[in-house]
Amino acid sequence: MDEAKALAAVEKSLKRRRYEHTLRVTEEAEVLARRFQVDISKARLAAILHDYAKYRPVEEMRKTVQSEGLSPLLLHYGDEILHSFVGAYYVSTELGVTDLEILSAIRYHTTGRANMTKLEKVVFLADYIEPGRTFSGVEEVREEARLDLEKACLLSLRNTIMFLVSKQQSVYPETFEAYNELIFDIKRRS
């Protein structure tokens, strides 16, 4: 799928504000992909499509999790993560994207996972640090993203986990796994 078709499909499925977020994520993904030697066209396409399912009705997404054999764990960790997992499925079935690397980057852009590929890390991080984000801690992650992809992802995971814990919300298990793996990897490098 070329970028123009992807942008047209996404623009139809998103509210204006979220579409503008998507454009910023796409630009940030390109910057990160160049910096960390990741395929730029894949990074851009995954970023364009990352929120394709963001405004689908929650019940539709829940039914898709059940009917398409996606992990039933998804139904127990808040509706905010559904759009990424279900979105990868919809991008494949509705838009015809078959590149497994792109679909995986869409799937894990919210939660992360252990053994993330560099493409997954780029899209995950681009979504977190795009210029429209203004929450506490984002500047520290932006600074780290200029130097080290793994450390920047670790900081964003740490911030996400701390935020969820402060709100007494559950944390998706793969998010903890991503955090732990990055801790071990970074210590091994040192």
List keywords for this structure.
mainly alpha, 190 residues, Hypothetical protein af1432, globular
- The number of domains is 1
Number of helices: 10
Helicity level, as a percent range? 55-70%
Low-confidence stretches: none
For the largest beta-sheet, the strand count, sense and barrel status come to:
none
Average of pLDDT: 97
Helix and strand sequence: HHHHHHHHHH
Task: Just give the CATH class.
Answer: Mainly Alpha
Strand content: under 5%
CATH superfamily: Hypothetical protein af1432
Let me know the number of strands. 0
Structural class: mainly alpha
Radius of gyration from CA coordinates: 16 Å
Shape: globular
Q: Fill in the CATH topology.
A: Hypothetical protein af1432
CATH architecture: Orthogonal Bundle
Distance between the termini: 40 Å
Describe the structure.
By secondary structure, this protein is an all-alpha fold. The protein has a single domain (3-135), classed as Hypothetical protein af1432, CATH 1.10.3210.10. It is built from ten helices and no strands. The model has no long low-confidence stretch (mean pLDDT 97).
Topology:
Elements: H1 3-13, H2 16-35, H3 40-49, H4 58-67, H5 82-95, H6 100-107, H7 118-129, H8 138-145, H9 149-166, H10 173-189
Helix pairs in contact: 1-3, 2-3, 2-7, 3-6, 3-7, 4-5, 5-6, 6-7, 7-9, 8-9, 9-10
